[in-house]
Structure formats: structure tokens, C-alpha cells
Amino acid sequence: MNLLSRIEEERGRFLVWAPLFFGTGIGLYFVPLREPDIATYTTLAVVVLICASIAWRWPWGGGPLARAVICVALGFGVAGARAHWVAGPVLDFRYYGPIEGRIIAMDRSQSDAVRLTLDQVRLNDVNPAKLPNRVRVSLHGDQDFLTPAIGQRIATTGHLSGPNGPVEPGGFDFQRMAWFRGIGAVGYTRSPALLLSPPMGELSLAVGRLRQTIANRVREVLPGDSGAFAATITTGDRSSMDRATIDALRGSNLAHLLAISGLHMGLLTGFVFQAMRVLMGLWPRLSLNVPVKKLAAVTAIGAGVFYLALSGGAVATTRAFIMVTTMFVAILFDRRALTLRAVAMAAMIVLILTPEALVEPGFQMSFAATTALVAVFAWIRDRSRNGTPRRLPGWLRPVLAVVISSAVAGLATAPIGAAHFNQVSHYGLVANLLSVPIMGAVIMPLAVLAALLAVVRLEALALSLMDWPIRWILWVADTVSSLDGAIGKVPTPPGYVLPLLAVTGIFFILLRGREKWVAILPTMVALVGWATVERPTVLISSSGGLVGVMTSDGRALSKSRGEGFAARSWLENDGDVATQQMAFEREGFSGQKGQLEINLSGLSLTHLTGRGAEDRLVEACAATDLVVLAAWRDGPVLDGCALLDRKALAQSGAVAVHLEPGGWFIEPSHPEDLSRLWTR
User: Fold this and answer.
1) How is 482-537 classified by DSSP, letter by letter?
2) What is the rounded distance in angstroms from the CA atom of residue 601 to the CA atom of residue 622?
3) Which end of the chain is more exposed for a tag (fewer CB within 10 A), N or C?
4) Minimal CA–CA distance to 253: which of 423, 489, 374, 107?
5) How many Å from the N-terminal Cα to the C-terminal Cα in the chain?
6) Do residues 148 and 103 touch, judged by C-beta distance below 8 A?
């Protein structure tokens, strides 16, 4: 059978392939260094018209390939349109002064501080046309003057600047993420935040205030970690979750319990669906004259809509809502519910609405787990229909389903979690087997019961019953994550690894018969590339204040405190378990404070910091190959001196220095020809 014939066989299943091609187009949009111009989009429009003509005239010939090209072009165009649609002012200088704004979201920073997202921003002496649409401020110091609430207008005095770029070349691009979220400045305050006006009555914030009200009530009934966990799984409000608890849940592979996604949405709507069927079945006259099953499906969809709005509409929640809605709509039309078509439809809707989600771990992990689970259980179902005898007793099948679900979802998401978070939970399956049944059989039904009892203000009865089940899950997380060897650290893979694994995984699921095995070779290429990845020899922060040099014991850092985000990110990307203090104490740098030196094979480097650093520059240039100066220098260029000061680093961003047999070269985070919307 030739290739065109095989492609033709897949023509009727094009919907399940469409997200792959559409996502490819989105991914291609983020690759170029320069923002695509009007000529690029015009060319794509012409390509779409040509391919549409081919698909219409020769639907059984080149039609499938033409439709694939159309999807790629449309994905590219949708991503570009979205990037321009969310465009807003970005603060292009360091600001210190009064900050006013309205609270529209709350969460916690990496340093465990409460972090507020503000809109309707006012900054002193800043042109209103250049004011960011949103700013994000972390609250440090004594903040007893304010209990933050959605809709409040507050004032404080703090530091703001435009979102920073990657902490190393090829690293996580916070600038891009902030651009798509409409955040034009980030910063912090140590001054007390003061209330200017209480929450206003705007309809746009009504759901947010309702969510916070529910979260506060949950935490009132369940204080401490139990209340924080319950508030997170019911409303998506993580502002009270402390960093230690989150780290324990991640280390035991239970962090997915916090994300309102398929598990929560499925358990909630499934419980509502079954409960409505049982309740209506108790009324014989109703059950005999009304399609109870379909009415229960409509009720479950309504519960899903409410839960989606209440949770804030994150990517995983939106995907889960679309999935369960598709399932219940299939019930309404007497069709099979759980299929790869439903997953593909959910993926297309999410990517059309928020194409930037493609490069975020939430989207990747959510759809990887869902696609794998649907494929595996469809395979099991088909084997049962083909006459394979069922050897397990009925009571054991739910247990086996939990085991299979946890194993499949864990395997599907493990590479993504390892790539983004640089760790693998070795005992995650055990933790999930001990926790997921409790979550589904006890905690989520009690959450639904609490919502129903809230109508008569008796929600505390159900919420109080959630305490011990939640404590069990938190105990499992803490115990499992504390076991010896529970967490394995891995380095960040090369940029091509995750896309290659994703494409080969999709091919393995969608192709049939022996064709599946074409995915083996690309998978091996990706895994070998990950296993043999070489981290940069030298990393230099965008301020020039921190230098990290790879040694035989791991990366040595030039200072023990300060620039903690960059230090932590470098060590995590190395797959290193050391803290910044431990990395500072490693052998590598020599010299005294303010002038550290290190000699590598083929490169000598001097790091100048502190007062009088520029006065020592000429001497350092004469003695070493590369000088890093943690100061802004406006003087003349020094002949023969390879210098990276704050002025140069402001243009290049954080840099990596790579050693090669013929010498060394510098790789910037922001090359000279980089010009994207979020980097201007």
C-alpha cells in the first residue's frame, strides 16, 4: 500500500489529526527571532487558498495533505493574531514610587509571598498611554493593614520593572508568558498596602469575589493546611497554600490534585449525573415519562459550567469542561462518549482560544494524560468486545481501573514534568494509589454536598468531614516525598526533545497496526539527546551580579545570597539538588570578595562586584580572557578586553559561555536580531 493510499484511509479521521497540525503551526510561530511581517501572513493566506482549492477539487488525492497544510497555516495565523490582540504597554524602565490599582487575582510567589495582580493601574509621573494594563506585585514585610480581596482598590509604594527575559539562553521565557497574560510590569513592595476602596460591584469581578468568599468560608471551617487544600480544589485559590506543602505534593506526584482538571471535573459532574439519576429514579412517575438519563446529563453540564466559572477557567479546567460536556452531549444523542475525537475537539477549542497554552506545562500534561487514558481504556474496551474473557471479579475492576489510570497518566506526563520541573517522583504511583480513591470516593462528594448544604447555611457539616481525608492525602504526600530516593533530579532537555516526544506519542496512538512502531526511532533519538545533554560551562545573569561555573562537583556560584530566582533556576536546570549556599561553597572560584576568578580549560574569567569594581577593570582585563562587571559602564571601549557589564547585558540578556576545542563563544538570551512583540 503506497503512502497516498494510507493517507486516504485516515481522511475520515482527520479531526483527531487536526490538533497535531494546528499545534505545529502555533509552535512554528514562536520559533523565529523576528516577528512575522505582513508579507508572511499574505503568503500564508495564499497557501491556504491554494490548498483549499486542492482539497475541494481532489478530495481523494491530495486533499488530506492539503487540509494538513491549511491547519498548520491557520495555527500560525491564530497565534500571531492572538499575540497582537493581547498587546499592551510594557514598562521600559525601573520604577519606584506610588502604585495604585484594583485587585483582580491573587496567588503566591516562589518566595511564598502573597502576590497581587492589579488592573486600572496608576503610577506617579507615568504617561497614562504608557501605563501597563496589569501589574503584578509581591507583598513583603508587615502587611497587617490589609486583608486582600478581589475588587479592592489599594495603594502602596514599591518597585516595578518590565518582565524579565529568560535566566539563561533557551530557558523559560517569562516575558512571553507575561505578554499573553496582559502583565506589563512586575515588582514588589515592603511598604504596607492600604485600602483605598472596598470591592466594587462590577459584574466582571463578581465570580472572582464569589470564589474568594467561598475560599474564605472553607478556610474558616477548616483552618491550616486542610483548609488551604480544600479551598484550592474547590475554587482554584492557591493563595493560602504554603511552599512546603506544594513541594511535598510535587515530590510525591500528587500536585495534579491541586489543579482543577479532568479528575475534579469528572468526579464532580459524574457525581452530579449519578446522583440526579438516582434521585429522579425514586419518583416512578417521572422516571417512566421523562428521559432521566438525558435530564441528568443536562444537570451535570450545568454543574460543570458553574465549576468552570468558579475555578477561574484555567487551561486544564477548560479542557476538562469541554471533555465532560462532549461526553454528556453524546449521551443526549445516544452516542459513545469517551473517544479521541472528543479529546481532539477539546484541544482545538483550547488552542484556538489560547494558542499560547501550547508551550505551557499545564496544557501539555493535561492533554498527554487525557489522550493516553482514552487510548488505553478504548483498547481495553475493544478487547472485551472482541471476546476476551474477563477473569477479574467485579469488585476488583474499580481497583484495577485506579491502578491503570494512575500508571498511564503518570507515564504520559512524566517526561513533560521532568522537562519543565527537572524532577521525577519515583514513588508517585504508590502515592496516587493511596490518595486518588480517597479524593474520588470521599472528598469530592463531600465538596458537592457542602455546596448543596450552603443553600441552608449548613455547609460546615460536610466541610468538617473533609478534614481527615485531606489530612490523609497531605500525610501521604509528606511521607512519600521524604523517602530516600523519592525525588530524582534531571537536567533540562534540548529544545527539540519535548516536541519530538509529543509528535511520536501522537503517532503511536493514532496509527494502526505495525505502523505504530515508526515512533520508536524518533523516541530513541529524543531520549538519547536528553541523556547526553551538555549544560553551559558558564552562566551569567542579566545584571552581571551572579556567575555560575560548571565544575566536577556541580555548578559553583559566585555568591550565596541574592538573585535567588536565577540561582535556583540554573541549579534546577542542571538537575542539581544543591541550594544556592551549597553551590557557593563549592570549590571553583578563587580570590577575594568583589574580585573572584576562575580558570577553566581555555578560558579565564574574573567577576568584579561591589564598590570600586570599575577601578579594578583595567587590571582584570590584562590578566583574564573575560571580565564580568556588575556595574553600568559608560566609558570608552577597552582594547583587547572581552567585557560583559550591565550595559551590555541589558541588550543581550543572561548569557551562556560555551567552551569548544578551538576556544569559547558567548550565547545571548536575546540575540541582536531578536525582535518579537514581547521583547521590544
Assistant:
1) HSTT-EEE-PPPPTTHHHHHHHHHHHHHHS-GGGGGGGHHHHHHHHHHHHT----S
2) 18
3) N
4) 423
5) 51
6) yes
Q: What angle do CA 290, 291, 292 make, to 5 degrees?
A: 95
Nearest to 351 by CA among 121, 81, 161: 81
**pLDDT (0 to 100) of residue 496:** 92
Q: How far is CA 660 from CA 131, 520, 668, 669, 670, in A?
A: 45, 32, 17, 19, 21
C-alpha dist (Å) from residue 505 to 20, 83, 511: 11, 28, 10
Torsion angle of the four alpha carbons 447, 449, 453, 455, in this order, in degrees rounded to the nearest 10: 80
Could you give the CA distance from residue 380 to residue 390 in angstroms, rounded to a whole number? Answer: 11
Mean pLDDT for the stretch of residues 566-592? 91
Distance, in Å, from the CA atom of 94 to the CA atom of 162, rounded to the nearest integer, reads: 8
Class of residue 34 by CB neighbours under 10 A (exposed 0-12, middle 13-18, buried 19+)? exposed
Beta bridge partner(s), residue 195: 154
Q: What distances in angstroms separate CA 94 from CA 141, 162, 231, 348, one per listed residue? A: 21, 8, 36, 40
Q: Residues near 457 by Cβ (< 8 Å), separated by ≥ 6? A: none
Distance CA 626, CA 632 (A): 16
User: In 3-state terms, what secondary structure has residue 70?
Assistant: helix
> Cα Rg for the chain, rounded, in angstroms?
27
**Helix and strand element counts for the chain (H, E):** 25, 18
Check whether 334 has a pLDDT greater than 80.
Answer: no
Most confidently modeled range among 121-125, 267-271, 589-593: 121-125
Contact status, residue 313 vs residue 208, Cβ threshold 8 Å: no
Quote the pLDDT of residue 385. 64
Specify whether the CB–CB gap between 109 and 136 falls below 8 A.
Answer: no
pLDDT value at position 118? 94
pLDDT in tens, 595-622: 898 888 878 899 999 888 888 888 888 8
3-state secondary structure of 115: strand
Return the amino acid letter for 118: L
Which residue from 456, 435, 434, 458 is spatially nearest to 446, judged by alpha carbons?
458
Query: What average pLDDT is seen over the chain?
Result: 85
Q: Is the full-model pTM beyond 0.90?
A: no
Q: Is residue 109 scored above 70 in pLDDT?
A: yes
Q: Measure the CA–CA gap between 103 and 198, rounded to whole angstroms.
A: 10
In what side-by-side order are the strands of the sheet with 595-600? 590-592, 595-600, 603-608, 626-629, 642-644
- Give the whole-angstrom CA distance, residue 234 versus residue 307: 8
469575589: which residue's cell? 209
- Residue 547's DSSP bridge partners are 540
Amino acid identity of residue 312, one-letter, is: G
Residues 6+ apart with CB under 8 A from 83: 29, 179, 180, 356, 677, 678
Q: What residue type is 162 in one-letter code?
A: G
Q: How far is CA 493 from each of CA 173, 270, 534, 573, 595, rounded to the nearest angstrom?
A: 16, 38, 9, 9, 33
pLDDT tens digits along 293-318: 888 889 989 888 888 877 766 666 77
